[in-house]
Amino acid sequence: MALGSVLGLIGVALFATAARTVLPVGEWYAVKSAAILALVMIVAAFRVSAHHPFDRFGTANLMTTVRAALVALAGGLIGEPAAAPVAAFAVGVTAIVVVLDGTDGWLARRGGISSAFGARFDMEVDALLIMALAILVWLHGKAAGWVLLSGLLRYAFVAAGWLAPWLERALARQQPEALGLARPGFAWHGGEAIELRIVEARRTSAGWNAGALELRAPDRVGAASALERWYRSSARDAIAASIERQAEAIGVEPKALAVRDQRTRWGSCSSRGTLSFSWRLILAPPAILDYVVAHEVAHLRELNHRPRFWRLVDTLVPDVDKSMRWLSENGTLLHRYAPRNRPLG
Length: 345
Description:
Structural class: alpha/beta
Strand content: 5-15%
Mean pLDDT: 86
Distance between the termini: 51 Å
Shape: elongated
Low-confidence stretches: 172-176
Number of helices: 12
Helix content: 55-70%
Order of helices and strands: HHHHHHHHEEEEHEEEHHH
C-alpha cells in the first residue's frame, strides 16, 4: 500500500503541474490535489490492517487508488477560476473515474481478495467524487447551494455513526425483531427459543433446570450478565466441536480458539492460525454456525478468497450460498443483540 500511495502522490503532483500549461489554474493546484490524495490514503492506511486479511494490497485496491488520484485532480480544481477549460477538465476526469468504477470489484473477485476494506475504499472514493463535483457545480454557478447536500449526506451519515453510537442502540431497541430476539421470557440457542426463568439469588449463575434456562442473580442486571456468560460458554463449546469435525476433515489444526464480543465480524483467521469468532453465532441455526466455522477453518489452508478456497468450503458444508444469504439478511440483528438491552421476562 505504501508504494502505491507514494507513486500515486508523485503521479498526481506531476500531472497537476503539467496541467498548468493548458489550464488557467494557480500554482497551488498541484499541492491541493496531492493533499487530497494524501488525506485519502492516510485514512485508508488506518483501516487496511483490520479489514483486509491479505498479505498484499492487491490490484483491485491499486485500481481504486488510481480512481482516488483522479478524484483528487478533480477536487484540486476547487477554488480555481470558473473557466470553461477547467469545467471541461473536471468533466473529463469524472468520466474516466466513472468508466473505471466496477473494475476494482471485478479485479477483487478475479484475484480472490475481496475484503470489507476494498468495498469501503471504493465507496468512499465515489462519495468524495460526488462531494467534489457538488462543490464545483455550485462554484461555477450551475446550481444553488442545495446541490452541496448531495455530497454532504454521506459525511453526515458517517459523522452520526462516530458521534452518536447511542442512536444505534436506541434504534435497535425500537426496531421490530424479525428473528424474535426481543421476545420476553426467552433466550435463543441454535436458532430456537428456550424458556427463561429468573430466580433471585445472591450469586449469579445460569444452568438448565426443569426444561428451562434458569438465571440466578440478585437483580435484572445480574441476570443479563449471567445470560451473556452462558451464551459465551455455549458458543465456545459448539464452535470447538464444529472446528474439531471440520479441521479433521481437511487435515488442519488451529493454534488457538478465541470467542469474543465482535460486532462487525463473525469470524477471522490470523496468519498464526488463531481462529476468532463472535459468541452471537450461538443464536443462529447450527448450519449457519457451521458455515462460519468452515469459512475460517478453510483459511488455515487457504488464507485468501480465491476459487480454490471456496471449493474447499464447499467440501465442508452444504448450501454455502444459502448460509451467506441468511447472514446477509439477519446478521445485523444478531450483531446488535445484547442481553442487557432485551427484556428477560
